[in-house]
Every structure is written in structure tokens, then in C-alpha cells.
Design brief:
This protein has about 475 residues and is α/β, with parallel strands linked by helices. It contains 15 helices and 20 strands. The protein is globular.
């Protein structure tokens, strides 16, 4: 892209900006994990000593495993399960009444235990997917007048097991889904993790000196939002309209503004799978549809809007397609394309950024989302010899990569570079050139200032050539 000066406007302001070359950045959960671990390593216990690694592991509670453990303990929502009738028998007094012992069952732990009997290691995404399918299954079990788009095909063949029959209540399952989503939004790290934010801010400040950024985060947390906000300037995300709600001011999505500004703003930050600030609003003027996502200024307000909202679901062939404030579970690609605001626009922006920009930086992403991987795989095919890609591993720990055994991250790197040799990459710490087109960081996130400057220098260079294996200092 040719550098130049132009004017950009959003939020009612007009700013002068000198255009730089753009860099596409994809951020996964490994970046959050790495930042939080680094944050904990700076903390001290009551005796003034730095926390031990064992304590750090116990306090690093933002992984999928830890979030799943929190979710499976949500026992506030309960359902009444009818007990088995009890016949006292002839030995007791004549004409004794047959009694029935009912019990209150915590719904979410019950669902999780059922999945644990079927899967080896189910997580909260499996749980949300199961609840969505059960919600559709329960809604039309014996109703022959339900429209086809609401009918689960399984209803034509199966009935629920007796031990799970008490769950066959759509309103109950929808309440369970809302509780899980609210819990996930509440548990993710936020601006209170000041030290963790600094680990993002340092390398991104270095990147922003040389590039305008299109940042696509797959995380719900707000660490990147805080890190990319400075001197009152916030990254552009399309939520620029203001509407006064019942409790506070919220931001509505500007469709036209997003299309014209997404790849022109000095820094665009897109939560492609949702954000802990996303919610709904009861807008009396009907400026925003009741089921359209808006952005709040505080997480508790967003959570309240979710737990208090009543929305109709978009369905097709008995599957829920509408996406909530966070996109989890399965069938993410269908939910993204069906919920156009903001996710359809966001996914188009990802495709535009990767297809038009030959520079790509991937941080802490393990390649578990096919709809993201499909565009990463297009990157080398579109840009060929002009491509420059950097892959930073997640979690803050060195990782050994073996390209003789195709793991998820191996396939991801292979998709980016398309020229990986079929041999083990040495476990050298720091940054290593795999080819002239790809740089791999073995030490993971956080990125040191030295490594960030090396990444910038690598991305600024052009062309792909012969295979190299030296370590970049």
C-alpha cells in the first residue's frame, strides 16, 4: 500500500493520519494465557516472595479447562425431577397412600456429567452445543404443527431417555445457556489485569510505529482493547453510534461506517467471536432491532442485558444459527454468516485483510477454527512470493514442533508458509526463519521488545527465497 496522508472520521471526530503499510494480526487464546502467566510471575505472596510455578498454575484460571470447571459448578438453575412412586407394601397399615419422592436437580452440572459419560474431555463449548441441540429437540418433540426450520430431524426417530426427560423444556434450556454465556463473560480477564495489559501494549506499540493494524482477536476478553487504547484514542470496531438505554449509553454498529473505515483506520480491533461488552438493548425508538448486538461500556451492564432479554432464535433444519454476544459451541461459521451485525461484517473484514495484505502475524492461535484456517490457507496462494508471515506460539513457553507429525499448529504454519521442510525444527529459543517467508517464535507470548523489533524488520522485508535455518537475533 502506498503511504500518504488522509483524513479519517468516526465518533464525530475528524483526525489526520499518515497511512502506513497494513499488518493483519490474528490473536488466539494462547496470547491471553501467556499474558496472564507473565502477569502472575510478577506477583508476590504474603511473605513478599514471588509466586511459585505451582501457585501460578493454580491461579491461571483462564484456560478452556479452567473456564469449563467454573461453568460445570453453576448450580443455581434447578429443575424438578419426579421421583419413583413408592408402595409401602402390605406390612404397613391398610390403605396407606402411595408417595412420590421428587428432587431438585442442578441443570448445568447434570448436563455436564451426561457429556462426561460420552466424551473423553468435554469443555464448555461442547456443553453449549449440546444445550442448543436439546433446546430444538425439546421444542417440537410432540408438536406436529411446528414449522420445518424449527424441527430437529432427530425428533422423527428418537425420544429422550427417561432419566433426562425432565430437561425437555425449552425455557429451562435457554436459561441454562444464558447463565453459561454470562459466566464466561464475567470470568474472562479485563482491564483490572494491568500487568497483563502491559505485555500486550509493549509489542503492539512497536508494531504500530511501522504499520497500521487490522487486529482480529478470537478472545472474549478486553486485554487487547485496553492495550490498544492510548491518549483517549480507541481502536475502531464499528460500534460508533450512541443510543441511550434504560441504564446507560450503549454503542450501536454503524454498517456503512464500518465498510468505509475498517481498512483505513490506524488500528482496527475486531472481536470476531464476540466480546464481554456485547449485549442487547430494549430500544423504545426501534433504532436498533431487539435481537441486534450492541456494545456496552461495562461488563456487568452487558451481562444484565443478556440475562434479562427475550429473543427469538434464527433456526434452520432444527439447528440454532443466531449468535449471541459470544460465539461458542459448534457451527461457528454458520452463526457468523447468519448474524450479520456484527459478525458477518467482521468475517468479511478478515477475508479482505488477508486477501489484500501480504503481511500476517499470528499470535497464540492453535488452529482450531476451520472458518479462520480456510482464509489463512488462502494467504500463500494469493500473495505467493510477496508474503511475509510470523507465527508466535501461545502460552509463554517454548514448544517443540515436529513437521513429520502433523499437529494442529503444524498445519497452521504449513498453511501460512506452504514450504515447510519435513523435519524437526530445532528447539532454539527466540525467533527462527523457517523460510524467507515465515518467521517462527518458539518462546511464545509475551513478545520481548527485541523480538518485536525483529518481527517488524522481517515483515518490512520483501520476497521469498531459499530456505534458511539461522536464528534471528
Amino acid at each position: 500500500m502506498i503511504e500518504g496522508t488522509y483524513f479519517i472520521s468516526w465518533c464525530g471526530t475528524v483526525k489526520q493520519h499518515r497511512r502506513k503499510r497494513r499488518l493483519t494480526v490474528i490473536v488466539g487464546a494462547g496470547a491471553t494465557t501467556g499474558a496472564v502467566i507473565a502477569h502472575l510471575r510478577c506477583q508476590k505472596d504474603q511473605s513478599g516472595n514471588l509466586l511459585s510455578e505451582d501457585v501460578i498454575k493454580r491461579q491461571d484460571t483462564y484456560s478452556t479447562r479452567d473456564l469449563t470447571e467454573k461453568v460445570k459448578r453453576l448450580n443455581g438453575l434447578q429443575a424438578r425431577q419426579a421421583g419413583t412412586p413408592y408402595d409401602p407394601g402390605p406390612r404397613n397399615r391398610p390403605n396407606a397412600m402411595i408417595s412420590q419422592v421428587d428432587s431438585d436437580i442442578p441443570v448445568i452440572p447434570w448436563l455436564m456429567r451426561a457429556l462426561e459419560a460420552h466424551y473423553r474431555s468435554p469443555n464448555f463449548e461442547h456443553l453449549l452445543a449440546a444445550i442448543e441441540d436439546l433446546e430444538m429437540f425439546a421444542g417440537n418433540s410432540h408438536n406436529l404443527l411446528v414449522p420445518d426450520e424449527h424441527c430437529s430431524p432427530l425428533n422423527a426417530f428418537f425420544d429422550p431417555l427417561p432419566r433426562h426427560a425432565f430437561l425437555m423444556d425449552q425455557s429451562l434450556l435457554r436459561a441454562a445457556r444464558g447463565q453459561i454465556v454470562a459466566a464466561l463473560m464475567e470470568y474472562v480477564p479485563d482491564e483490572r489485569h494491568v500487568s497483563a495489559i502491559q505485555y500486550y501494549r509493549g509489542p503492539f506499540d512497536i508494531l504500530r510505529k511501522s504499520f497500521d493494524l487490522d487486529v482480529f482477536t478470537l478472545n472474549y476478553d478486553l486485554l487487547l482493547d485496553a492495550a490498544l487504547t492510548s491518549d483517549g484514542d480507541t481502536p475502531f470496531d464499528g460500534f460508533t453510534g450512541e443510543i441511550r438505554g434504560r441504564r446507560s449509553m450503549v454503542h450501536a454498529f454503524d454498517r456503512a461506517g464500518f465498510m468505509t473505515t475498517a481498512q483505513r483506520a490506524p488500528c482496527t480491533l475486531i472481536h470476531i467471536h464476540g466480546c464481554s461488552l456485547f449485549g442487547y438493548i430494549a430500544d423504545p425508538k426501534n433504532t436498533v432491532p431487539y435481537d441486534e448486538i450492541v456494545k456496552y461500556r461495562a461488563v456487568p451492564q452487558a451481562i444484565t442485558s443478556i440475562t434479562e432479554s427475550l429473543r427469538a432464535e434464527h433456526t434452520q433444519h432444527g439447528r440454532i444459527l443466531s449468535a449471541g454476544p459470544i460465539i461458542s459451541g459448534v457451527n461457528k461459521a454458520a452463526k457468523i454468516t447468519a448474524t450479520v451485525v456484527p459478525y458477518g461484517y467482521y468475517y468479511q473484514a478478515l477475508a479482505d485483510a488477508i486477501s489484500t495484505n501480504p503481511r500476517l502475524l499470528i499470535i497464540g492461535y492453535g488452529g482450531s477454527d476451520p472458518h479462520v484456517n480456510s482464509w489463512i490457507a488462502q494467504f500463500p496462494l494469493i500473495h505467493r512470493s510477496s508474503r511475509r508471515a510470523v507465527v508466535v506460539l501461545g502460552g509463554g513457553a517454548s514448544t517443540r514442533l515436529t513437521f513429520t507429525r502433523q499437529t494442529t499448529i503444524d498445519r497452521l504454519v504449513d498453511a501460512v508458509d506452504n514450504a515447510i521442510p519435513s523435519k524437526t525444527v530445532p528447539t532454539t529459543s527466540g525467533l527462527q526463519r523457517i523460510t524467507d517467508a515465515t518467521l517462527l517464535s518458539h518462546d511464545g507470548f509475551p513478545i520481548s521488545a527485541k523480538s518485536a523489533r525483529a518481527i517488524v524488520a522481517f515483515l518490512k522485508a520483501g520476497g521469498a527465497g531459499r530456505l534458511e535455518t539461522e536464528t534471528v537475533q
